[in-house]
Amino acid sequence: MALLEVKDLHISFKTNAGEVHAVRGVNFELNKGETLAIVGESGSGKSVATRAIMGILASNGYVKHGEILVEGKDITKFSKTELEDMRGGEIAMIFQDPMTSLNPTMKIGKQIMEGIIKHQKVSKEEAKVKAIELLTLVGITDPELRFEQYPHQFSGGMRQRIVIAIALGCNPKVLIADEPTTALDVTIQAQILELMKDIQKKTGVGVIFITHDLGVVANVADRVAVMYAGRLVEIGTSNEVFYNSQHPYTWGLLASMPSMDAEGELFSIPGTPPNLLFPPKGDAFAPRNQWALQLDFEQQPPMFQVSSTHFAATWLLHPAAPKVQPPAIVVRLRESFSSEGGVLD
Length: 345
Ligand SMILES: Nc1ncnc2c1ncn2[C@@H]1O[C@H](COP(=O)(O)OP(=O)(O)OP(=O)(O)O)[C@@H](O)[C@H]1O
Ligand SMILES: [Mg+2]
Prior knowledge:
With 345 residues, the chain is α/β, with parallel strands linked by helices.
């Protein structure tokens, strides 16, 4: 059984202007020990979809339709108390700004111990031993000394390490990291990503890693889900999404990656995402898509199967669709994969 299964998830927000259709039919699963990256531009619904998994939507938001199965149990049917038990237990979340998750007035050792005591049912002494182990695991030196310090005595990157230690203290099966490195500088980002990879190997926790930046996921994710305007437009293994992408939106994201800027022409996808008060009826990306077919404007494309692990929602994949020439960067990536097995780690 998958650790987590999201089925036809629809999430809306009630606002004065009307209903915002933030998530519009999302399906994916997360297996044990796997890292799934969710990528997409700002507003595509990455945070909303994962907040629903944690049961922490804003008060005007609600799951309109669909199921979120955690080890087979549908958490959309959970009571408040059941959700509270699950949060920080089966599922833990790390946010972009570590200070939002840390209590500035409490020593970090105590903050790590709290979750351990609550979710692992151990004594204070045992919790302290575990907390120090966790500080070591997340790469904090002098853990006994650091245990007694307050959040303000740590740098941003170290605070994020502490937040990760707190999350792990609850022994989660699923760890959701919502842009955990965006607020950090590039070197620290790389260290945190390395740390998360390492922790995953050691603990087998399933990770959902959210980011704007397709470049970041290349090295961390087993699979990548590309989200646009509240829907998944493409999902596959990292190799499939990098080297054999099928949806023009994914092409746009690949072409916008600074590291892909071989010819010095940094691309940015023209136009802006649709207003989710009035989602369009076809592929929401069609108005920004130079390869869009008439049908893309009119009818929502289904997820066409590319391989047993790779799916994309574009009418370009219909057997009767015209064959189009993808952008040069995509052609280059496809060629690099068939000749050298690609450039990813
Ligand atoms: N409380 C709310 N009320 C109304 N609309 C909301 C609310 N929260 C989120 N939304 C809308 O839901 C959509 C998805 O937002 P979400 O925060 O999931 O985007 P995101 O992909 O995480 O973007 P970013 O990369 O900027 O974090 C957006 O259109 C946003 O405006
Ligand atoms: Mg977000």
